[in-house]
Queue: 3 jobs
Job 1
Amino acid sequence: MDRTIARDLLAAGLALGLLAELVLDGPAYGVNIVLLVVATLGAGWLLRRPGRASDPVDAWLPIAAVAFAAFVAVRGDPLVASLDTLAAMVFVGASLVAISGLAVTRRSAAAIAGLGAWTLEAALVGTPRIVRAARVASPAQAGGWSRLGSGWWLSVGRGLLLGIPLAMIFAVLFASADPIFRRGLDELFGLRIDLGGLGGRLLFTLACAWFAAGVLSVGAIGIPAMERASLGAAARSGMVAPGRVLGTAEAIVILLVIDLVVGLFVGLQVAYLFGGLDTLIAAGLTYSSYARRGFFELVAAACLAGAVVVALETTVTRRTRVYLAGLLALLALTAVVLVSATLRLRLYQDAYGWTELRLYVLVTIGALAAALAVMTALALTARMHWLGHGLVVIGVVALLGLNAVAPAAYVAARNVERAINPSLVPADGHVGLDSGYLGVLPDDAVPVLVGALPALPAPERQDMLTLLATRKSELASNPAFDSPAAWNLGRERARDSLSTLP
């Protein structure tokens, strides 16, 4: 990549990041999505490769991107707006591929999937390559970040450039999950680590700039790994693995910065969550209030840590002992974060009962724990290229487990147990049956609820009878369930159990 193009991409990415912060941080979704889509497409057009015309058949792609973005400003349904935004993002990526001179519409489904995968890769990890190219004076110097300067301080600076934004993301997640951690950061830095504060606004701007620069690079340089001498639409595109471009020194600095933030959080967990120090003095919260929060943020932090490990393992030029020690430390600290998330989730469930979402979170935690174990083994043996296979196995096992458990039936059974045996509920927990929630669970829950009716207290039994009668009527009157092609075992069991009702 030419140095001038790289610097133009960084400038355009920063400009789009600032625009995103201006129009998204505070205002609700609406015309701001249209502005961002049009600005991104305009930047991609200005930075397009010279002498490479777009396929005329692909002219509909940017039109579709703007149209879906416009729907966000028309429809008032949040779910529909989210789907429209996602569709607009997909068509923006496809438009940038077309702008680079690569045909999109004429290609096969497999080739389009490949183009999409490389575009996503550029958005996520393309910015480090752009930064590297912006500093390279000649092609001979483009072999890796570790050759971009003779002084160690340059490597440290580049590592901090990548590591600090990632560390800030971890800090925001941990501050949102743990009030003691947030208070410690307030005292340490004299500011609030909050998405609405200066730190959060800077983080949001840099994150948007990172993704924008990466995706714009597709329009500016194309996808070299998928291009051949002949760019015919019918040509099959070969895949080439991206080169290792991250110097070892930079990778070590990134790991040290992230390990420091995660280590600080883990230290507080050991002291307060596991060790029993007084949370009332530290954060003004009772232990139960302190512990029953933050599990979603901690699961997100664990996912991010895993993504960092994968990104480093696939881009670092050389694995040294120091690098490996930092990598293993991050994996170990992340395991403690998962333990914290598990304990918080369990305490929350003890107090308020199970929901399908909480069950899915627990399964996700288990899958992440297994993934961390696999990552550790593969990192020690330098075989991280097998990680994809391991993750597929973990995902299949997790999905099979959910099918075996039947989440709706499991959740219904646990909640019924709480209603029948109040002794299972802690002193400050929620007592009683949430009939409204149980009544909308899928059909797998119906046999459990019907079977529990005789044991339920009279008021809750009557509420549940009313809800089950409504479900019985729905199953009997919906014509979509009449066709033999719609046969479903869970639905048939629900019908059989409901047929026993008066």
Note: The radius of gyration is 27 Å.
Job 2
Amino acid sequence: MKILVRGTNWIGDAVMSLPALKELRRIFPDAQITLHTRTWAEGLFSEAEFIDELVTFDKSKWKAKDVYDNSQFLRDDGYDLAVLLPNSFESALTSFLSKIPRRVGYNKDVRGLLLTDPIAVPEWKGRRHEVYYYLNLISEIERRMIGRDTVSQMLPDVSLKILDDKKAAAREQLRSAGVDVEKRIVALGVGSTNSAIKRWPVERFAKLADRLANELNASVILLGSPDEASTAAEVAEIAQTPVIDISGRTTLPEAIAILAVANLMISNDMGLAHVAAAVGIEVIALFGPTNPETTRPWGENVAVLQRNVACEFCRRNDRTVRHVCAKWVSVDEAFEAAIRMFEREALNTVEPLEIEVCL
């Protein structure tokens, strides 16, 4: 059987879909599984053992010609099953025009008419973590096509394996950038591409960087995409101690490998925080207006810091308004959390560290 999986659109979502992809491979061990995803995702999935092939595409805006070209290209490969992880109408239309005989996805925005197996959005959507949202699709596929459901009994596995040669190259890249790799390495994720209001104030990141370097003798690096480079530059300029700013200067595979050799990431709600959790390092995620119960990086190596404010979770992106949640967690609280994460790392404990802030 040939299975085409339409991948997600953001780095964080791609990481949260890893358990679903691994379960799809488990229940169809002999199938050829192709991941149809955006070009940037090649850096995340190029060495994944649970897929057989990557077919990538670039898309900045929805265009009818792009849909037609993609569908004709995929049609020639003769897939038996399409699994649509995103909720977009375009992904359903592409699979429909590709004439894939069985098409499974969530029944949203009237696209159910284009699917052979439209799956109802679970009533718990918005209350459970997104890893279960993607896993639920695979559970439904197993139930409908095999007549059983073992997927829902499995623990989600978001782990990403990074090869030793990639880690060695990452250490050399950090040395070349001026990082003392003999010290503990703390990566700061100061941006957030899809929402400015998710960002902890740059002044607090700068003060935190100073304390990490001066009081914990850590090497501090700033990591992010080209879109986040200007925010990182602000932090580097304000900080009183040298921080190594490599935001926008790495490819995604390089950033993933760098995180794999770091000890801790302290980050806004952004894609690389999910990657850091997946490669197994300690993560402190700073949340503002979004719900960590559904979108936090997944894993016992993750702690969330968030203040409880009077307003509901929102996704407002108004740069001109200083929302209450922008004040968030203090530098002291973030620094104390870093100390406790380092202590946990030294003890090699596997128990989750409960350091959430709710004030």
Note: The first strand starts at residue 2 and ends at 6.
Job 3
Amino acid sequence: MITGTAGSAEAARLRGGSILDLSASQAPIDTIVVLMMENRSFDHYLGSLAADETYLEAGRSRYGRRFGIDGSTDEVYAKPDGTQVSTYPLLDAGDPNPWRGCGFNDPGHGWTQGRRERDGGFLAQGSGNDEFALGFYRPGELSFYDAISRRFTVCDRYHASLLGPTFPNREYMHSAQSGGVKTNAFPNAVGYPTGFTWPTIWDRLAAAGVPARYYYVDLPVTALFGARLNSITSPAANYFEDAAAGTLPNVVFLDPGFIGETRTDEHPHGDVRDGQRLAQQYLKAFVESPHWEHGAFFLTYDEWGGFFDHVRPPRFHDDRPSSNNDDDFRQAGFRVPTRIISPYSRQNFVDSRPYDHASILRFIEWRFLGAPAEGRRGTGWSLTARDRYAKNAGWSLLPSGPDLEFDPGTPDPATSPICGAEPLVAARGAGPMPEHDLAQGLANGWFESMGYQIGNWLPSS
């Protein structure tokens, strides 16, 4: 294991300064795009960079001999019977379908399972895991993700907001809280018959007159907040049109497809290359748009998905502090593979400051809502204690001198066979639902009842 030092006191004196040294009104970033994928950990995707001499040497040549990245693919975890199992490269394991993990469990990533993994390891009793959770990809095996990791900035201390599943973490991405909800429950199952009612970043942006929009492929996460976010929600096809026309708003959130033939979220047992290809398409549209010159694109994941990561997750400030482990909303999740992609990104850089999803909210709040770059001055800009205390995820961006040259390339378009009898369906009524929590909303009609359209909203070509 090689431990990164890019976030140390020495590296904090950033060569060329930080965008946060400017006032928000002087900042060159006018468009912030956030793409949130599903269920992959840092070490599972990027841990192998810590032993990649080509990557490390490129970093040392720019940032000094102490450059590193905190990753590991050399870990050992014990099964409940005491058997020791090592982490392993998925593509060398003899699995006929290493892109999906067919024949293995979907690794455990619930509230209780996450705590079993934190305290007892990734094969602990109650984790829900088998050996698939210990697999990892090596540099180049996910070619587009490898390319952007080398070209732009990797965050090696970016954690899921909660040590829990998809919905609560996505709720933190939109609102810096989950309302105390720990599960993937739809609002009407936990006392919110018309959707979650607490304030979101969308409410703050609307009140300040800042243009903002959420684009979705098939099922909109904004529907968890009821009909009130319908006005800022658009099909993904509109994103490509708006990017090409140079009419994207100041704040853009993107999601992948969560179900059926349009499934591109990378949630097991989906093909991770399908998600990679969608991310490339989203980024390519942004790079080729007029917005790229003054834009920043964050690629992150909602949570770790049960896959191994060697860094014990920290605690952050929260509106719901508790000394009870089972009710501790301060407890962040394991690290997720987050990249900052912008003409203002430092090439081959590692940002090792502690972040979670609220750190991206904090960057948005600084740029558009009057928040201080760091610290807690002022009122009216924060949603909860989480974003009020959060580190600003824009810290490593350069204040000037954009490097505009970047070719997103074209990743492998191949899709591996589905796992056994796992159905591929595009909409409710076409057969058994695939294994995704958002599919519950199709079964009970939640999306339609809130006025949202469902379907495949990707462009046809």
Note: The two ends are 43 Å apart (CA to CA).
